[in-house]
Structure formats: structure tokens, C-alpha cells
UniProtKB/TrEMBL annotation, chain A:
The lineage of its organism: Bacteria, Bacillati, Actinomycetota, Actinomycetes, Micromonosporales. Residues 219-352 form the Oxidoreductase molybdopterin-binding domain. InterPro entries: Mopterin_OxRdtase_euk, OxRdtase_Mopterin-bd_dom, OxRdtase_Mopterin-bd_sf. The keyword Transmembrane applies. It comes from Asanoa iriomotensis. This is Molybdopterin-binding protein. Pfam families: Oxidored_molyb (PF00174). The chain crosses the membrane at residues 12-34, 54-76, 97-119, 131-153, 165-189. Keywords: Membrane, Transmembrane, Transmembrane helix. It comes from the Bacteria.
From TrEMBL, chain B:
The keyword Membrane applies. PROSITE patterns: PROKAR_LIPOPROTEIN (PS51257). The chain crosses the membrane at residues 31-54, 61-82, 102-119. This is Uncharacterized protein. Keywords: Membrane, Transmembrane, Transmembrane helix.
Length: 353, 135
């Protein structure tokens, strides 16, 4: 058995703390955007901010995979340490082991469930977002306790030349894992990354998560858009929407699963549409889909997004009429938002009080 | 002092995480304990065995790194290749052929490694003189 390597372990621990820290903060942010507490505020600009947030979230998780394995490799011999006999040290030893067990359980859980989720493979019975969110708190909590226990060891550790090559290998491996997956969100790496989980262009050049078939969408022949607000309502046909002044904007679809793609969207700015029918334009807006069931059948655009002139009720994508999978007859596309909230197959717009 | 701050914040986050997890405990616990069990009983002994062989064979750092990269990428590819119960079919999406692309990538990696090894060996040994080789 090799001698313990506190320096390599603490160095890898520091890298892991950065990776898990980035993953946790970006994850919390994404969670708050999708389930906003009353005090939370999220701007509509910069346009690419949510895309960067999710890219950091999934890539920090990917980088953590080899780092976690390397870290466990350096401390594996400690698994077989004999517990002390005296009562005081034995209690401390047991507490430390329990804390480490929670840390290892939650760290593996987060990385494994995250990787399966981005691949849209669900070999479990729990609801992924809720479980991934709860265990994220366990993981950071366990990291906090672990740092509290190990800080003196990490501080007194002297560099060990024999482990330098191993540390370098771990760093190179993490970098390779990043390059191998970063194509999901970095356009110029798309053809380079062999493991980018959304590499295909998809219909009209943009990938899709939920197809019209999966959402059981049939657009009725007499489709029309209802607009409601306190004190009024209006109905608009597709021809009416086309007759309004159109705007084209280059906006990303940025999925919570980390993949993202820019596209040219053409449609009516939501602000203009509300103004045209005489509805208030400075309120939050709920957008509902033809989709009857499902978690994302409707979404609420907070005030900054509802007012942003880049927020479109899109009718066209990359110069073509929206395909069914992209939300025909119309969909919401707003800057700096998760893709799941860019409601498709829109049938009702309600201005909230 | 700073250790106490980490401890308090850590215990607080742990408590909140447990409170969130309680309603989902029965479905998540198997997946929570599977990580350390699989690692400590399967992955780590396997790595130890491979490490022993590499040390005996005096394999250099470059090959070790390439092996680590290969194993890590293969691990990350598992959910993309093994899909026990995937989301509903998404015919609009042409995903890439992951096994083929990963194989290409790893072949390039190992080929680069082999070329650099050959070049280094050649420099060390010097160019072979004509007529000395038995063929």
C-alpha cells in the first residue's frame, strides 16, 4: 500500500471544490429561474447569460468526474485504516467517516444522475430535478464539513514530487473530458467533441427536446390566439399576427441540459402585440400552450422579459415557417431564459395583475 | 474560526438537503449508496490491479495519462450508449454515432502517443545503419 498523499489529495480537493462550487452556484441560479421565489429577480440581458450559466453547470460537472476518481484514488488506502481504541478519538474517527461517506454518496449521485439526465436516459424511479437539487445541498454541506475537518491537514501538506506526475495526469484528463463534451454549447467545438450529447442540427437547424408528437399536439383548423388582461380580451388569427410588424432576432435556445444553439427567430415582439390590442405592457405575462398536460404547458415571463423588445412571439425560424416540433403556429422566444420556459404551440397569453 | 464557519455552513446545508430528500428517500437511497459501493469494491481494486501492472511494466506518465483519458471518456459515454429507459423518441434529432466518434478520437490520441514514442526512441537510438538489420 502506498503512503498517504495529503498534498495530492488536498490539491485535487481544491480543484474539486472549485468544480462543485461552480456547479452548485449555477445550478441554484437555474433552479431559482425556473421556480422563482418572491424575492428573486432575473434580468433579460445579457442575452447569452443563461446559456453560459448552463454551459458552466454541465461542464464543471464533467470535469469533476476524473477529478473525483483521482481524489478517491489518492485517499483509498485510508479506507482500511484501523479505528483508534480510545473512546474520544474513536468518536472523532467515526464522525469523520460518516461525513466522508455522505460526501462520496452525494458527489457520485450528482455526477451520475447529471450525466444520465443530459443523455435523456432515466434508469431510476425518482423525479430527477427534485432529487438532483436536494442531493446538491447534501454535497455542498458534506464538502463544508469535510473542509472544516481537513483544513489543518491540507495546510501542513508539503508538495510531494512523486505525485506531481499524477496530478498533471488528472488535470490533463479533466481538460480532455471538457473538450470531449464542450461541443454541446461551444459552436466551434460541435464537430470536435465526440461526446457532445446534442450534436445534431435538428429540424430547421435547431435541436428539439419535446416534439409535437410527444406533446400530443394537433393544431385545430380554427386556431387563434387569445389575449386576456384585467379589463379586456382580444382574439387574433394567424393572418393578423403575420400582418403585424415583424422583427428578426438572433437568440439562443439554451436548454437546462446544457446544450444550446443560436438561431434567427422572426415574429411579433410581445410588447408590440400587447400594445396593439391595448393590453398593459409592463406586467408579467403567462403564456399557455396547446399542450394539455405536462410540466411545461405554460410559463410566466417575468416583467423584464415581457417588456424586452427582443422577446418575440415567433412565427418563423431561420427564414422558414416554424415546424411543428418548434411550436407551429407560434412560440415564445425570450432572451436569457431556459429553453423549457420558451413555450411552444402558444394559444393563450394572459397579462398578470 | 474559519473551520467553525465551514462546519456550521456545512451542517446547515446538510440539514436542508436532508429535509428536501426525505419525501424521495425510498427511490433515491439505492442510487445514493451505489456510488461508494461500486467504487470501493469494484472500481478501486480494479484500478489498483491495473496500477500494479503498469508499475511492474515500467509504463511512463504519458501512457498512464492516455489510459486515464480513455477510461474517463468511456465512462462519460456510458449514458449516451446505454439507454435502459430513454425519453420518448425524438425523430427530429440526428444525434451523432457516439461509439464511432469516440473510437476515432481515442485512436487519434493513441496514434499520436505512438508516433511521439517512436520519434523519441529513434532520437535516442540514432538512425539505423543500412545493412545491419536482419529481415
Amino acid at each position: 500500500m502506498r503512503a498517504p498523499a495529503p498534498h495530492a489529495a488536498s490539491r485535487l480537493g481544491l480543484w474539486l471544490a472549485v468544480a462543485f462550487g461552480v456547479c452548485f452556484v449555477t445550478g441554484l441560479l437555474s433552479h431559482a429561474i425556473q421556480h422563482p421565489p418572491a424575492w428573486f429577480w432575473w434580468p433579460s440581458r445579457p442575452v447569452q447569460l443563461y446559456r453560459v450559466n448552463q454551459g458552466l453547470h454541465v461542464l464543471s460537472g464533467v470535469a469533476a468526474v476524473p477529478l473525483l476518481l483521482a481524489k478517491l484514488w489518492t485517499v483509498y488506502p485510508r479506507l482500511f485504516l484501523r479505528p483508534p481504541r480510545a473512546f474520544g478519538p474513536l468518536v472523532r474517527h467515526a464522525a469523520e467517516r460518516v461525513a466522508t461517506l455522505v460526501l462520496v454518496c452525494s458527489a457520485f449521485f450528482e455526477l451520475v444522475t447529471g450525466l444520465f439526465n443530459v443523455a435523456q436516459s432515466y434508469p431510476w424511479r425518482f423525479f430527477f430535478p427534485a432529487a438532483h437539487y436536494a442531493v446538491a445541498w447534501l454535497a455542498v454541506g458534506a464538502i463544508g464539513v469535510h473542509v472544516a475537518i481537513k483544513l489543518p491537514v491540507a495546510r501542513s501538506a508539503r508538495p510531494d514530487p512523486e505525485r506531481r506526475a499524477f496530478l498533471r495526469s488528472a488535470g490533463v484528463t479533466a481538460a480532455a473530458a471538457l473538450v470531449a463534451t464542450a461541443g454541446v454549447t461551444v459552436p466551434w467545438l460541435r464537430s470536435v467533441s465526440p461526446l457532445a450529447w446534442r450534436a445534431g442540427p435538428g429540424p430547421q437547424g435547431v435541436p428539439v427536446n419535446r416534439t409535437a408528437a410527444a406533446a400530443h399536439i394537433t393544431v385545430p383548423d380554427d386556431w387563434h390566439l387569445d389575449v386576456r388582461w384585467a379589463g379586456g380580451s382580444a382574439t387574433m388569427s394567424l393572418a393578423t399576427l403575420h400582418a403585424l410588424r415583424q422583427r428578426t432576432a438572433r437568440l439562443p435556445i439554451a436548454c437546462v441540459e446544457g446544450w444550446s444553439a443560436d438561431a434567427d427567430w422572426t415574429g411579433v415582439p410581445l410588447r408590440d402585440l400587447l400594445g396593439a390590442v391595448g393590453a398593459p405592457t409592463d406586467r408579467p405575462v403567462r403564456v399557455s400552450s396547446l399542450e394539455k398536460a405536462g410540466l411545461y404547458a405554460s410559463s410566466v415571463l417575468p416583467r423584464p422579459h415581457a417588456r424586452d423588445p427582443l422577446t418575440l412571439l415567433a412565427l418563423r425560424l431561420n427564414g422558414e415557417t416554424l415546424s411543428p416540433d418548434h411550436g407551429f403556429p407560434c412560440r415564445i422566444i425570450a432572451p436569457n431564459r431556459p429553453g423549457v420556459l420558451q413555450t411552444k404551440w402558444v394559444t393563450l397569453i394572459e397579462v398578470l395583475p | 474560526m474559519i473551520r467553525l464557519a465551514f462546519l456550521v455552513a456545512g451542517v446547515g446545508a446538510l440539514g436542508y438537503g436532508c429535509w428536501l430528500l426525505v419525501p424521495q428517500l425510498t427511490t433515491t437511497v439505492p442510487w445514493l449508496i451505489a456510488g461508494p459501493i461500486v467504487h470501493d469494491l469494484v472500481v478501486a481494486p480494479l484500478l489498483a490491479g491495473v496500477g500494479l501492472i503498469l508499475t511492474r511494466a515500467r509504463v511512463g506518465a504519458a501512457v498512464r495519462t492516455a489510459l486515464m483519458v480513455t477510461a474517463t471518456l468511456a465512462l462519460i459515454a456510458v449514458p449516451l450508449v446505454w439507454r435502459p429507459s430513454a425519453a420518448p423518441d425524438n425523430p427530429g434529432l440526428q444525434n451523432r454515432d457516439y461509439p464511432r466518434d469516440l473510437a476515432l478520437w481515442l485512436t487519434a490520441l493513441w496514434a499520436a502517443l505512438a508516433v511521439s514514442w517512436l520519434l523519441r526512441r529513434r532520437r535516442r537510438v540514432g538512425p539505423p545503419t543500412a545493412g545491419t538489420r536482419n529481415e
